[in-house]
Amino acid sequence: MTIRVGVLGAGGKVGQAICAAVEAAPDLELVAQVDKGDALETFTEAGTQVVVDFTHPDVVMGNLKFLIENGIHAVVGTTGFDETRLAEVRAQLTQRPEVGVLIAPNFAIGAVLSMRFAEQAARFFDSVEVIELHHPNKADAPSGTAYRTAAVIAAARAAAGVGISPDATTTELEGARGADVDGVRVHSVRVAGLVAHQEVLFGTQGETLTIRHDSIDRSSFAPGVLLGVREIAGRPGLTVGLDPFLDL
Amino acid sequence: MTIRVGVLGAGGKVGQAICAAVEAAPDLELVAQVDKGDALETFTEAGTQVVVDFTHPDVVMGNLKFLIENGIHAVVGTTGFDETRLAEVRAQLTQRPEVGVLIAPNFAIGAVLSMRFAEQAARFFDSVEVIELHHPNKADAPSGTAYRTAAVIAAARAAAGVGISPDATTTELEGARGADVDGVRVHSVRVAGLVAHQEVLFGTQGETLTIRHDSIDRSSFAPGVLLGVREIAGRPGLTVGLDPFLDL
Amino acid sequence: MTIRVGVLGAGGKVGQAICAAVEAAPDLELVAQVDKGDALETFTEAGTQVVVDFTHPDVVMGNLKFLIENGIHAVVGTTGFDETRLAEVRAQLTQRPEVGVLIAPNFAIGAVLSMRFAEQAARFFDSVEVIELHHPNKADAPSGTAYRTAAVIAAARAAAGVGISPDATTTELEGARGADVDGVRVHSVRVAGLVAHQEVLFGTQGETLTIRHDSIDRSSFAPGVLLGVREIAGRPGLTVGLDPFLDL
Amino acid sequence: MTIRVGVLGAGGKVGQAICAAVEAAPDLELVAQVDKGDALETFTEAGTQVVVDFTHPDVVMGNLKFLIENGIHAVVGTTGFDETRLAEVRAQLTQRPEVGVLIAPNFAIGAVLSMRFAEQAARFFDSVEVIELHHPNKADAPSGTAYRTAAVIAAARAAAGVGISPDATTTELEGARGADVDGVRVHSVRVAGLVAHQEVLFGTQGETLTIRHDSIDRSSFAPGVLLGVREIAGRPGLTVGLDPFLDL
Fold first, then answer.
1. How many alpha carbons fall within 13 Å on the CB side of residue C100?
2. Which residues are annotated as active site (chains A, B, C, D) (predicted)?
3. B163 touching C, CB under 8 A?
4. According to the model, what pLDDT value does residue B161 have?
């Protein structure tokens, strides 16, 4: 039996990619596409079981209210969820405890796994540094992902009582050794022809371990979204972040 | 309080490296070094708590018998343990259930983590291939580690119902697509100047994840051995492989 | 003063990308776009100095005849040029010796440089292997570029009297050591999420040199085409391949 | 016919490695080994044709004087040659114009080729950054090689009229974007388990080119020294740097 899927924000670039991915999956059926101005009732009329929402912070809370009230599971990539908003969603879910809602800032499975593996490896190596590489139009350095990765690594090392990475540098040209995020060095490379890449380099006596994620296409969120769609019915309540769905 | 450590096979290349590593660790104390011809009683006389054994299949079973009988924990890198030998060690341990014995084929933490991460990631990606790179004096291709890695990945994919990696190749120069290990392609590169390296490359729509391990020095077993030494007292009975000590 | 540029095959995917690249270049002016059915006279009427031709083997010879007769330089990415066709172009150029024609199978500068550097480095290293990595929809293994790269390396080594790369493999799972192209091992990796990548790995005692080219977008031909457009007026006659324009 | 080779500083670590490399080469014959306290006449008595000098700045000038006067070619890895010293060597060579002297700061062929290729590629790409990776005991960041590489790239770009790499960074955590060497960003990674590595990353629309050098053993100077020994007789006068011997 297939899962009946609806898409919110179906007319946008991301929405179209998700519609295409759902249609290409033999175990999923695309039964409703809703865009700005369309009625949310389209979902209930079509017997939708799961809705994917990649819309806008201004409308996502209303969307979720409707979906939860109508017993429809939701997989949400829309941004702007702070603690207040998450609390509100949780409160609504108490009325319909069988409904599942997944809200994730990043659906690229490779990115999620990279961070998890980095966290797991962190305490076993003397040294660790993060190198993130992006196209030169990026405004922030380091990237948000690199910040989070370094913070997660630093926390894991601190919890295990591992000290700071050794570094005998006495003469440094300003900036050569990168930025310091919670004691982890992060280097931001900006080169034309790149998209979004990150390398976490661990090292100890005689060996290094590298975890590298390369994202060359925005479509990389699709497999993670489909994973959410397939599993959400079995995970009632609110889940934040794709990690729990990976059962690592 | 420091742990009192002894080394068996202390005169060999590996044994010397382990002695040096123990001496360099502030929480460990090297209290006994035993080599061919020396009496095992050296360990009991020195009040040794943990012995590291990197000796030879011909003598390791006798060593373990002595250590277990005397309530000394053992961390063993000696090869040649088949099911019969492991069963024998387990039987001896029933007499001294408080003693811990760790027997591992590979103490390089990076190698152990690589394989574990590859196993965890296996079911999330459409494609996976293994590239192992070694010095040109190596006799076997693929390496034993690459064989095991591919087998572990294949098993994880099969268990999750993931099919074989897609491959539209219709014209192949013999060997170009590598060897087939349980449906996973493995490529063996042999180039002067390399030591021992392995890359597991996963890919799905728009993204790839790479797990790479570089070992450039035989001393890379040392951190894993020290980890075993520190933890063995808290893990009575027989443990095979370093993985359980990593608490992943 | 800007160069007045026309594009043949302007309606195709590649043609559109070239038009966009020309328009974005401050020193170039896009004065004529011609597609199937349009008259070639558009170029002469517009005072075109250089025409870029990414069309089809069926029409390219007629296009070139017209361009040469009218004293217009040509930069050609259309395929299908064998020795007979090249001879014909050379013959036409004797009538208009001031006209320049550049015909190249690959305009990606990174690919051209990779092959040149591989050729230059070939004789200095004991070992060399080629690893090419592509999306899994590719039909041939190795890629055409990998074949040519291996052949060029093999020729450079032979010319310098360098023997075959050392290899002590005695036990090989079929295919593990890759394909043999003129004595150079070539490995073809096919993984979803990849586009087109190639790594040439050289090694000698204690060191390795890697030349890697990553192409993640078909637009990678644009900078090479623009280079050809800018330089063609100064290089009368027929040039085959982008290399001579790089002045290495 | 073999070349008769002598080694100065034969007792040191590097000297021993060179002696071993000479002895392993079928076209070379090790006829004289001289260390501190030994007479330089050992070379003349043994009919030495080429002497390799890896000694000390304090003695190298005297060594060279003797070798040049006796018509013996020299391949020199000793450091400390400034313009004054080079001028002195040139002056001595006017007396014996048939003698060749090669003085090079780096004999690792991979390092020399890397820098050359980086220089050749520099003007064809919008972007370039340098990432150098070393063991954590290194005192200076960036490495001397990275400084020189960046300077060579910057000069080649300036000569070709190529502007600075694009960079839209507006929010930077201090140091994230690396150090600025003549307008080229350089990142210095320090991780245990590494030896000496450098990556030059070029990029333009849709493609990147990476030139990477990995040195994992100090013996990597040997092939470059042997190349010098074999070619020096054919290159009379003073040569600084191994580059000219590579005939690129």
1. 17
2. 134, 138
3. no
4. 94
CB of A128 within 8 Å of any CB in chain D?
yes
Q: How confident is the model at residue D93 (pLDDT cuts 50, 70, 90)?
A: very high
Q: What is the CATH number of the domain that holds A151?
A: 3.30.360.10
Predicted local confidence at residue D153, as pLDDT: 98
Neighbouring chains of D at 3+ CB pairs under 8 Å are A, B, C
Nearest-CA residue of chain B relative to A223? Answer: B205
* Residue count (chain D): 248
Is C234 annotated for ligand binding?
no
Q: What is the mean pLDDT of residues D43-51?
A: 98
Q: What is the pLDDT of residues B27-65, one digit of tens each?
A: 999 999 999 989 999 999 999 999 999 999 999 999 999
C189:B173 CB<8 A: no
Which pLDDT belongs to residue A106?
Answer: 86
Averaged pLDDT, A166-172: 96
The angle at the Cα of D128, spanning D127 to D133, to the nearest 5 degrees, equals: 150
Nearest by CB: D113 against C124, C216, C219: C124
Q: Does D146 share its domain with D60?
A: no
List CB contacts (< 8 A) between A214 and chain C: 193
CA-based R_g, chain B, Å: 21
Confidence of residue A220 (pLDDT cuts 50, 70, 90): confident
Q: Does C132 share its domain with C226?
A: no
Chains B–D, number of C-beta pairs less than 8 Å apart:
11
Q: Helices in C25-175 by DSSP H: which ranges?
A: 41-45, 57-69, 83-95, 109-121, 144-159
- pLDDT tens for residues B193-220? 999 999 999 999 899 999 999 998 877 8
Q: C138 and C123, same structural domain?
A: yes
Q: Which chain A residues are closer than 8 Å to B215 by Cβ?
A: 206-207
Residues A183 and A229 in one domain: no
A146 and A53 within one domain: no
Chain D nearest CA to B39, separation (Å): 36
Task: List the single residue in D with minimal CA-CA distance to B219.
Answer: D193
Task: Enter the tokens of residue B116.
Answer: 């574990």
Q: Are residues D11 and D88 in the same domain?
A: yes
Same domain for C16 and C47? yes
pLDDT in tens, D114-157: 999 999 999 999 999 999 999 999 999 999 999 999 999 999 99
Query: Considering the entire predicted model, what is its pTM?
Result: 0.91
From chain B, pick out residues whose CB is under 8 angstroms from the CB of C176. 141-142, 175, 178-179, 186-188
Asked if D97 and D75 sit in the same domain, the reply is: yes
Nearest chain D CA: its distance from B193 CA (Å): 8
Chain C contact set for B194 (CB, 8 A):
203, 208
How many CB atoms neighbour CB C49 within 10 A? 20
Kindly tell me the number of DSSP H helices and DSSP E strands found in chain C: 8, 13
Q: Specify binding-site residues of A for NADP(+).
A: 36
Write down how long chain B is.
248
C186 in reach of chain B (CB within 8 A): yes
Residue C111 labelled as part of a binding site: no
| Residues B50/B55/B57/B62 CA torsion (nearest 10 deg) | -50
Of A175, A106, A105, the closest CA to residue A142 belongs to: A175
Residues of A in contact with B120 (CB under 8 A): 113, 117, 248
Q: What is the 3-state secondary structure (H, E, C) of A220-246?
A: HHHHHHHHHHHHHHHCCEEEECCHHHH
Task: Render pLDDT for B158-196 as a digit per residue (tens, 0 to 9).
Answer: 999 999 999 999 999 999 999 999 999 999 999 999 999
Q: What is the pLDDT of residue D245?
A: 92
- To probe the interface with A, which of C194, C216, C221 has the most A CB atoms within 10 Å? C216
* Exposed / middle / buried, residue A30 (Cβ in 10 Å: 0-12, 13-18, 19+): buried
Q: How many domains does chain D have?
A: 2
* CATH number for position B54: 3.40.50.720
* Segments forming the whole domain that contains residue B153: 109-216
Q: Across chain B, what does the average pLDDT equal?
A: 95
